[in-house]
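Batch manifest, entry 17 of 40.
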Amino acid sequence: MLKNIKKKFISADGTLSGKMVAASLSLLVVLIQQILATFGIKFTGDIGAIVACINTVLAFLGLIGVLSEPATLSVDTASLESKLVQSNQAIADTKTIAVNAQESANLAHAKIDDLTTSQVNALDQSDTQSIK
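Output type: structure tokens
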């Protein structure tokens, strides 16, 4: 049983598990408070001050390296680079499509303007001929 507890508190690299120590200290304060209440002893101190002291101790232990949570980060940069290249290509393709669509829209507007102008001119000519 003690070996299992030791495994929980001490990591494979020999450092204390910060999560386990912090959780255990917090539960220890609650346990002490419950034991005192069981025997009718009223705690008149400031529980916030005790928690602040425990937090200070934990911060100090973390500062000197007793509590450490070494985390390694592995990133597949080749995969990220290929995704970035694909994204950039997709953006370039989308911009090309947008430019082509804008050019098509401009041509359509120009044709509409030409048709409208020719219709207006045709109406003007017919009106002029009907007046004569």
